[in-house]
């Protein structure tokens, strides 16, 4: 009898466990194998996700046959990254995925959340003393905030996410949550609208109120978020329409508090009270390491996202807008959230950190960060009043000078010569076309390892002469402050004093000579308008298409470039990209890729970059050490292009370029060398380079090139060892 009773109890236990956990055995989402998904992710050049970074062969081998106790797989987690190259993160197949696939998710989470030392941990939930909050209204800072919103995500313990949630269980989950919502009272009392069977009247009303969530996000779709749509999903709204709950959108529950204006305290208090009430009837999944468990790793921890819709058009037009936001702990999104664009200069600004801090800490960070951004927007609007149309807005000179204090005064020329007297003299001053000293130093202000400013147009060199001339003399080691660059002399191309530097072919891999050129009458790419950039591209590409002989070739505009052309240019190492933060912060990538392109001849030995840093980078190159051929091809190309346009030139500075470091000849001659024995003696190598004014880069191969632009005539440029531009009696090698 005892055995029978025991047997019955075991059967009942198994049955009850199976019934209450039938989701463990109901997997709806079928995906490709983990190995195939990894191959697709790794081979996609457009994919820069953390999934790509951490989905290593070891991870694939370890987890490709492993499932969670809900039947979920790592393949389901990373499927969205294979289908959406721009998606940064994987999605958890269920709440157990984070521990089952620990080695993968820990690496992703530690990287995304910038976890110190990689040790993931989260404090207990703490919303703070709701009665004594002291946040100021965010509309105190310029009346720029349209609305304020705070939301939380929650997972009901025992239920899976989209990939491992059956239709029946999703309905069961919906019922459980909607019942809890129906018991709310006071300011939270409202109505639940299930998406299934929703009347047209209700649907249109919810759309009008911007409350209705949809199934049009490709990232969420590929993650399994829309399985059995719209079954088991719905929206709860209180009577005042300032409290909202989404059921089974991305997470099981999204609790949202919102209202017009910038009163963060009122919005936050409403949310905190609501989650406290719901916690009485629903048990939410929580981990001491991850905090509250959510579908997306980005929301782990507090899951709290406090945001404002704010009008920040000038701030948003800055080339490093997102980086500025991140510096203040803020994430910027489009008007309608993630993966959307801004409408009317309105952006969604929210706290970036969720993991490793409490709810009150997160909302405090958000308030401080948004406040700083709003104050900067007000400064930008004031400082850029009256600026010519199309010129990049820029922060006040005093603001950037403060940032520049982080740079080395010994190594950074931009900071060294930005004295209080210079700031006072030039603050607010503009060139004819709107360039300011602030424009010139912002790339260094945000990148303290950079050393030189970037000018906005040729006129900068005269308008800001008291700042630039001492800087130029110092950088180029010019002793005479009344310096004057020699007239251009390319030499007799039929009697060059050099030929093949390595006739045996033992040492030199390749030779390359390039110059920069600016077209007179155009601003530099850093402040140029979109329309002017297109005009400039038309002028330059027209001249390039008219080249003949060995210079004849094809122009490839970056705009609407075919995938075939792009791959070929990448393979040839000809394609320039928009990945240099120094040039980006100078404004060099504005309107990317419009107005930019690449020209090369049929032999691929003559190349021109259009509107990269300068208007043109003209390059001649070939295998081996025949410097004479490379130089001759370059000069003939320059002369041919010069027949169709006038290059910006000054008797004082030589050829005018965006960066003062390239003034003068703007020439950079280089060879790629194989010298393993000498490169193993860095001290000796440096002595030789110093003696002949060369710079060396590289490890296995050495790239040697001239380190002085302003001092020399063209045809003996690479051989001169003296730096004084007025010393014409320089010795050759």
UniProtKB/TrEMBL annotation:
Alphabetically ordered keywords of this record? ATP-binding, Kinase, Nucleotide-binding, Transferase
Which SUPFAM superfamilies does its entry note?
A: Glutamine synthetase/guanido kinase, Guanido kinase N-terminal domain
**Domain Phosphagen kinase C-terminal intervals:** 144-380, 507-698
* Key word Transmembrane helix present: no
Q: Provide the Phosphagen kinase N-terminal domain boundaries.
A: 33-114, 396-477
Q: Look up the coiled coil feature and give its residue ranges.
A: none
Pfam families in alphabetical order: ATP-gua_Ptrans (PF00217), ATP-gua_PtransN (PF02807)
Family annotation (Gene3D superfamilies): ATP:guanido phosphotransferase, N-terminal domain, Glutamine synthetase/guanido kinase, catalytic domain
The biological process GO terms on file are: phosphocreatine biosynthetic process
At which positions is ATP bound?
A: 147-151, 210, 254, 305-309, 333-338, 510-514, 573, 617, 668-672
Keyword NADP part of the UniProt annotation: no
Protein's recorded name: Taurocyamine kinase isoform 1
Q: What taxonomic ancestry is recorded?
A: Eukaryota, Metazoa, Spiralia, Lophotrochozoa, Platyhelminthes
């Amino acid at each position: 009898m005892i055995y029978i009773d025991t047997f019955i109890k075991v059967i009942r236990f198994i049955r009850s466990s199976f019934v209450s956990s039938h989701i463990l055995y109901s997997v709806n989402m079928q995906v490709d194998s983990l190995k195939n998904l990894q191959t697709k992710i790794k081979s996609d050049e457009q994919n820069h996700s953390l999934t790509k970074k951490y989905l290593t062969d070891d991870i694939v081998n370890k987890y490709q046959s492993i499932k969670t106790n809900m039947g979920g797989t790592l393949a389901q987690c990373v499927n969205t990254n294979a289908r959406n190259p721009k998606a940064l993160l994987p999605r958890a197949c269920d709440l157990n995925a984070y521990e089952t696939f620990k080695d993968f998710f820990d690496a992703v989470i530690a990287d995304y959340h910038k976890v110190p030392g990689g040790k993931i941990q989260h404090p207990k939930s703490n919303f703070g003393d709701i009665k004594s909050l002291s946040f100021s209204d965010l509309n105190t800072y310029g009346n720029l905030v349209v609305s304020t919103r705070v939301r939380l995500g929650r997972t009901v313990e025992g239920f899976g996410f989209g990939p491992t949630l059956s239709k029946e269980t999703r309905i069961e989950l919906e019922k459980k949550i909607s019942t809890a919502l129906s018991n709310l009272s006071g300011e939270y009392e409202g109505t639940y609208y299930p998406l299934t069977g929703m009347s047209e009247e209700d649907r249109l009303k919810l759309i009008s109120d911007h409350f209705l969530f949809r199934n049009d996000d490709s990232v969420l779709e590929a993650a399994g978020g829309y399985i059995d749509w719209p079954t088991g999903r719905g929206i709860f709204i209180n009577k005042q329409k300032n409290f909202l709950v989404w059921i089974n959108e991305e997470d099981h529950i999204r609790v949202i508090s919102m209202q017009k204006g910038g009163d963060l305290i009122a919005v936050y208090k409403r949310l905190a009270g609501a989650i406290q009430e719901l916690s009485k009837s629903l048990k939410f999944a929580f981990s001491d390491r991850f905090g509250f468990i959510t579908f997306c790793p980005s929301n782990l921890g507090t899951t709290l996202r406090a945001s404002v819709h704010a009008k920040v058009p000038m701030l948003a037009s800055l080339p490093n807008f997102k980086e500025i936001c991140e510096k203040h702990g803020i994430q910027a999104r489009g008007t309608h959230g993630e993966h959307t664009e801004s409408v009317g200069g309105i952006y969604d600004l929210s706290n970036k950190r969720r993991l490793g801090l409490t709810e009150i800490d997160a909302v405090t960070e958000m308030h401080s960060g948004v406040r700083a951004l709003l104050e900067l927007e007000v400064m930008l609007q004031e400082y850029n009043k009256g600026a010519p149309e199309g010129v990049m807005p820029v922060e006040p000179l005093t603001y950037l000078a403060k940032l520049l204090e982080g740079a080395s005064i010994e190594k950074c020329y931009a900071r060294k010569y930005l004295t209080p007297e210079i700031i006072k003299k030039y603050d607010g001053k503009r060139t004819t076309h709107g360039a300011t000293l602030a424009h010139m130093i912002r790339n260094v202000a945000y990148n303290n390892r950079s050393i030189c400013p970037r000018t906005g147009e040729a006129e900068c060199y005269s308008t800001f002469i008291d700042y630039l001339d001492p800087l130029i003399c110092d950088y180029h080691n010019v002793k005479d402050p009344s310096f004057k660059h020699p007239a251009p002399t390319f030499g007799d191309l039929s009697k060059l004093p050099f030929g093949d530097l390595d006739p045996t072919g033992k040492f030199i891999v390749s030779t390359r000579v390039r110059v920069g050129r600016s077209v007179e009458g155009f601003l530099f790419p850093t402040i140029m308008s979109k329309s002017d950039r297109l005009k400039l591209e038309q002028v330059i590409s027209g001249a390039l298409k008219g080249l003949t002989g060995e210079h004849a070739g094809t122009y490839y505009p970056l705009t609407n470039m075919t995938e075939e052309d792009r791959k070929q240019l990448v393979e040839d190492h000809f394609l320039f990209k928009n990945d240099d933060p120094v040039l980006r912060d100078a404004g060099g990538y504005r309107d990317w890729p419009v107005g930019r392109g690449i020209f090369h001849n049929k032999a691929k030995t003559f190349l021109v970059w259009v509107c990269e840093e300068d208007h043109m980078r003209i390059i001649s190159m070939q295998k081996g050490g025949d410097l004479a051929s490379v130089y001759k091809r370059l000069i003939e190309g320059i002369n041919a292009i010069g027949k169709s346009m006038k290059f910006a030139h000054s008797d004082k500075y030589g050829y005018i370029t965006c960066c003062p470091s390239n003034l003068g000849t703007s020439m950079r001659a280089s060879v790629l060398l194989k010298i393993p024995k000498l490169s193993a003696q860095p001290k000796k190598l440096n002595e030789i380079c110093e003696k002949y004014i060369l710079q060396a880069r590289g490890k296995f191969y050495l790239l040697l090139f001239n380190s002085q632009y302003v001092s020399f005539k063209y045809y003996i440029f690479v051989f001169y060892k003296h730096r004084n531009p007025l010393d014409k009696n320089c010795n050759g090698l």
